[in-house]
Amino acid sequence: MKNYTKKFWDILNLIEDYEKYGFEDTHSEVSFSEGTADSKDEMLKSVREKVKACRLCGLSGLRTNSVPGEGAVNPLVMVIGEGPGAEEDKTGRPFVGRAGRYLDKWLDAVGLSREKNCFIGNIVKCRPPNNRDPKPEESFTCFPYLEKQIEILKPEVILTVGRIASQIMTGRSIGIGALRGKLYHYKDIPLVTTYHPSGVLRNPSLRPRVWDDLKLLKTVINNG
Ligand code: URA
Question: Which atom of ligand 1 is least distant from the CA of 81?
Answer without folding.
Answer: 3
